[in-house]
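Students often ask why we bother encoding 3D structure as a string. The short answer is that it lets us treat folding as translation between two languages. Here is a chain of 486 residues written in the first language.
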Amino acid sequence: MYARVRELLTPEERLQYLQIPPDLGEWELGTYFTLTQHDLEIIQQRRRDHNRLGFAVQLCVLRYLGWTFSDVKEVPVQIIRYLAKQINVDPESFASYGDREATKYEHLDEIRKEYGYQNFTSGEYRSLCKNLFPHAMANGNPLHLIRLALEDLRKRRIMLPSMATIERAVWETRKRTEEKIFKLLSVSLTETQITKLDQILTTMPESNRTYLAWLREIPGTSSPESFLKVIEKLEYIRRLHLQVDTKDIHPNRLRQLSKIGSRYESHSFRRFDDPKKYAILVAYLLELIQDLTDQAFEIHDRQIMVLLSKGKKAQEEMQKQNGKSINEKIVHFADLGAALIKAHSEGIDPFVALEAVMPWDKLVASVEEAKRLARPVDYDYLDLLEKKFYVLRKYTPTLLNSLEFRSTKSAEPLMNAIDVIKDMNETGKRKVPEDAPLDFISTRWQKHVYDDDGMINRHYYEMAVLTELRNYCPLRRRIHCWKPPA
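And here it is in the second language, the structure alphabet:
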């Protein structure tokens, strides 16, 4: 069991690290397998071709892989030919290298001394673990850490030990960082918080679901009801008061722990020791707060899109229903226009010309009907949204009350408008204050915000605020949406 937990790679993965790919690119060949003048001078000191080629292979294998030639099962024939060409020997002579086993070790010892390579010692093991520690605090992925370990040893010209040793160093470093992170995340938890975290893993009253399973449920259709369910989960987590100091934990590590927490079921958490269990739960819940906030705003975004879509469809339906009447008006006013043009060209009384086409009382009635049928000049449909405002009111007071919005200076007018609406919701006021901020309102909404009597229309004011909020928040650039636990 002791050895198995330190095995982070499969046999196939382990073997890949000890192999030289047969299709190395020009950069790898130039960097690791092209001999310098100094290399050639050292190599030419060998007396036989196979020893010169063997020495060159040993040197380049150590440069490229970090392991010795004895650790590598096979060197691609392309590499042997590439090196043989540089020292003007027959590639076939390499088959004789190693007939005398001691020669390989003598060459390796000479390479070590000449090029400054060092053996891997217990001191280097400790140095490796120390160097890996800050990286493991940021990213616990074993493959990432193994790659960094190999890079570190190669950079310091330490001849690589067995992969089992590398894996053990990575495993032990990960274990130490996990223990530190688990402690940082769980040390500040109170007994009350621990009790509530344990409760998350239990079954809900009159249900076969655990609280954890309930928190993970994805909202169904985008609706005000779904929004309120998301906020209910947010409030549940907030009541845990997880004021955990995470400044000494890398964000990547928190995300990794959260991802781990998202995969485990309640019974899996119960198998962990307390520091690990509570740390992963805390990391997951902190990330879940953000996820739930994103879900809430995604629902709000869709509700605004639905609202605007309904306005557009209502306008299209009106035009469809009124199509015949609109066409009649176009024909009438084309005839009236033609009569006026003729009257102007012939110098006759325009009113006589008009009444010849349409009696005056019918003309007046036709103009009034045209006013009723006409849509705004810009063919916008916002004037049709007021009756649909109450759908938003099913959830938007909760939206504004459940989240605290902070922004840069450019969005301050919108933030002040949110405060105005929150105050109206809390006090029951119906009229928007005359000094309510309006700077944030786009040109499209401005013409609808004021009623005919000059008063601010609350419905349109709120819709303008909620639309602008939808435009700002998903970008997460100028507004941060969050509310700390009460």
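Translate back mentally: The chain has four domains: 4-115, 122-186, 191-294, 403-482. Keep this in mind for the problem set.
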